[in-house]
Amino acid sequence: MSEQLAYVIVTPYSLHKSRTGGILSRLISRTGLDLVAARMFGPSAELVKHYSEAIVSANDPQDRKIQELIRDYILKNLAPDPKTGKPRRVMTLLFKGEDAVRKVRSVVGNLGAERRVGETIRDTYGDLVFNDNGEVRYFEPAVLAAPTPEEAKTKLQLWAKYSDKEGGVLENAITYAPGETPQRTLVLIKPDNFRFPTGRPGNVIDFFSRTGLYIVGIKVLRMSVADASEFYGPVREVLRTKLKDMVGGKAKAAIEKDFGFSISAPIEKDLGNILGPIFGDNQFENIVRFMAGRAPSELPASEHNNPGTEKCIALVYEGVGAVAKIRDVLGPTDPSKAPPGSIRREFGSNIMVNAAHASDAPESATRELGIVKVGENNFKNVIEQFYGKS
């Protein structure tokens, strides 16, 4: 069977209730598909109208009344807030693989009066409540997904059309109390979470959800060697200089063991000064290789700007005290020193393979966001490359 593109739209209510991580975990681990793009949207009334018009379909296995409920839900809950005029946050996830549309829809599930507890995303996170007269009292679909490859194509091309203007890192989407000053910070869900289809990326996002912050940007990222080198550039000089004493001590111990003579303190210091920068450069190459798939020395400079082979998810979180709140949940760089309940203690292996990165200061966030470019529209590029430009 040929490859397909499938989408899942996470509704504003699911985002508000911080259910994003749980939804993503199920989609990745239960479908085995490749998450190839993701984008935040603040849909206009025009986009919402066009999307809603394509919802009711004879090809959808759901009852027509349920389809009409979903259409009406979209019109009411995805359009800008009529009271404030602010856009509502919508997250669109894009998956690729064989039989992708069916696999996604089977994990998403259908809505109906007869529901199985926890079997699908909608079983767990959606609601369809009737009153005693059989009328719908409350309805929340949790996510939206196309029933067929043909409808997936039509709807994805629609969202791609609006993705430049209405997607990216959202502005003015959150209401704050007077006197509150929000911050933005960057999070990278690192490549060690994507070695095979697993719920780990979503689980990490779940941990961050307890900060009470808002996701306003998301991007599936394959960091180039050039970007990884720039991103971790400040670490390079630290590795070259601050590890000299450690390197000198290890060199002294190795020489004394293998050659059987003592090394004086001045010579140990000289060994550190000579070997420390070399060791630091080697460690820096390892970091870049981990994030991009290749080290700078392993490919010609002309290829340093090409997308890497390793996958990350880049997230922009917004809220009061965002930098400190995210860092607190993340934990220190060394997982062995991270407190219980922190991300790096739960998911990290060592100082480099430690599950996630988060900006350590507002200034760092500004610099890092400029490198990662979460607002860049690779969502549209994936759709156009797959279907061709419409």
Question: Secondary structure elements and their pairing?
Answer:
Layout: E1 3-10, H1 12-16, H2 20-31, E2 34-41, H3 45-53, H4 64-77, E3 90-98, H5 100-108, H6 121-125, E4 127-130, E5 136-140, E6 143-144, H7 149-166, E7 182-189, H8 200-209, E8 214-221, H9 225-231, H10 233-242, H11 244-259, H12 265-292, E9 312-320, H13 322-330, H14 343-347, E10 356-358, H15 362-372, H16 378-387
Antiparallel strand pairs: 1-3, 1-6, 2-3, 4-5, 7-9, 7-10, 8-9
Helix pairs in contact: 2-5, 2-8, 3-4, 7-16, 10-12, 11-12
Order of helices and strands: EHHEHHEHHEEEHEHEHHHHEHHEHH
> How many angstroms does the end-to-end distance come to?
24 Å
Largest sheet features = 4 strands, antiparallel
For the residues shown, what is the average pLDDT? 93
Integer-rounded radius of gyration: 24 Å
Number of strands: 10
Low-confidence stretches: none
CATH architecture assignment name of the domain at 1-168 and 375-390: 2-Layer Sandwich
Helix content: 40-55%
CATH class of the domain at 1-168 and 375-390: Alpha Beta
Give the strand order of the largest sheet, numbering strands 1, 2, ... along the chain.
2-3-1-6
Shape: elongated
Look at the structure and name the CATH superfamily of the domain at 1-168 and 375-390: Nucleoside diphosphate kinase-like domain
